[in-house]
Amino acid sequence: MSKVTATPEALALIDEIVADHGPVLFHQSGGCCDGSSPMCYAQNDFKIGDRDVKLGEIGGAPFYISASQFEAWKHTDLIIDVVPGRGGMFSLDNGREKRFLTRSEICNI
Question: Would you say which domain of life the source belongs to (predicted)?
Answer without folding.
Answer: Bacteria
